[in-house]
TrEMBL record:
Any one Pfam family match given in the protein's UniProt record, by short name: APH
Protein name as it appears in the record: Aminoglycoside phosphotransferase domain-containing protein
Coiled-coil spans in chain: none
Top-level lineage group: Eukaryota
Organism of derivation: Corynespora cassiicola Philippines
Domain Aminoglycoside phosphotransferase: start-end pairs: 76-123
């Protein structure tokens, strides 16, 4: 990140795998042209990698298989149709946004974005996690996307939410507030991060259960 006022637009952008194991996956992903194919390939590779490292583990392979089925159903139902890929930050929280509070009020005050080490090229709905901290700040940053479209607690917060939505547009709002795209975001995060803990297993099971309920009721 260049100091404020210095042009960094001509700097070379280097895209590389963050973990060594990711490099082994890259060769298998070059020809994937759809969100569904990409997700299924990643979950297949994660299953194969897990079987080598943890041959007695039966939980993760089962969940990855169910994730692949979920990806296929999302595609079949049209949720992945016409969804472009874009650069997604994945950790666009207040702690990573630099501002100049004394800046000219007629111009944007954001001067920089930090922590790009988690950025990926991903379906655009991954960039549309609703920024609840704008209109419903929680000191512990413990936000629940399921309540993102609830009416904010104060008139000022309502105005902030409306102002953001007018600037973001209808496409963003669809990706941000739809329960299906909320679940799709979690699905893609499991493709990116894998299943690393008992808490991840619990969350994966809850996501799959909610998806089945959502699909059966539609």
């Amino acid at each position: 990140l260049k100091p404020h006022g210095q042009d960094s637009s001509k700097e070379q952008v280097v895209i590389a795998p963050f973990f060594e194991t990711d490099a082994k996956l890259l060769g298998h992903l070059q020809d994937q042209t759809s969100t569904t194919d990409l997700l299924k390939t990643i979950f297949t590779l994660r299953t194969a990698d897990g079987e080598k490292k943890y041959p007695l583990d039966t939980i993760r392979p089962k969940l990855f298989s169910q994730f692949m089925e979920m990806a296929g159903e999302l595609d079949e139902d049209g949720w992945f149709q016409d969804v472009p890929f874009s650069l997604c930050h994945l950790d666009l929280e207040p702690r990573n946004i630099l501002i100049d509070a004394t800046h000219d009020k007629q111009r944007p005050i954001i001067t920089g974005i930090l922590d790009w080490d988690s950025a990926v090229l991903a379906p655009s709905f991954m960039s549309c996690k609703p920024p609840q901290w704008i209109w419903d700040w929680q000191d512990d940053e413990d936000e629940d996307e399921q309540t993102a479209n609830d009416v904010p607690p104060t008139k000022e917060c309502i105005k902030l939410k409306i102002a953001f939505e007018m600037a973001a547009g209808w496409d963003y709002m669809l990706y941000a507030y739809s329960p299906v795209y909320r679940l799709a975001r979690r699905l893609v995060r499991f493709a990116i991060d894998g299943i690393r803990s008992a808490e991840d297993i619990d969350e994966a099971e809850k996501i799959l259960e909610e998806w089945n309920q959502t699909r059966s009721s539609s």
